[in-house]
Each structure stands twice: as structure tokens, then as C-alpha cells.
Amino acid sequence: MMKRLVVAAALLAPAAHGGEAGDPGENCDGSTPEMVDCLAAKTARWDKRMTIAYQQAMKDASPQQHDQLRAEQRLWIQYRDANCLYYSMGEGTIARVDAGECMRSMTEARARELEKLGQQ
To answer: In terms of C-beta density within 10 A (0-12 exposed, 13-18 middle, 19 or more buried), how is residue 67 classed?
Structure first.
């Protein structure tokens, strides 16, 4: 149980402080529903940024890379969703927060990765 609390605290720390680059400085604290809604809103912003970066990467890719990038993105979305589903199946209400933070952090990481493709 103590290990779970430490992991949960580590996952929540970035979300609780907000202010990530490209993300408004809102805090994701409060009740569980408020935290989940806040993380969902942050995820939506990162998802939009990821979509823009993906579209740019597709424009910048060679014709030979298009199918691979499309397949890669689709598989990545499946992996993210399956990975975060695991967290949502945990015990207690913290599982909803863990899953929300999983979606936010993975989407942010993918958005940043795709943005770097456009800078190469």
C-alpha cells in the first residue's frame, strides 16, 4: 500500500503543479472528479498539439515514410490506450487520477517527439 501511495504521489506531482511548457499553469488538485477533469483538459491540449505535429511530420516525410509514420502513430495510440487502461483498473479512486496522468504524460511525450521530427 505504501509503495502505491509513493507511486501515486510521484505521478501527481507534475500535474499538481501545472505550468508545463505549452500547458496553462492550472493546478490539478481538488476532488477526484476535479483532478480527472483537469487532466483530461490538459490531455486534450496535448492531443491537439500532437495532431498538429503529426500532420507536419507527414508533410515533411518522404513518400516512402508516409505509410510507416501512419502505422507507427496508430500503433502508438493503441499502446497508450492499453497502457493507461492498466492504470485505470487499479484500486480506489486514485486509479482514475493515475490513468488521467498516464494519458496526459504519454500524449505530451509523443507530441514532443513528433515536433522534433519536424525539426530534423
So the answer is: exposed
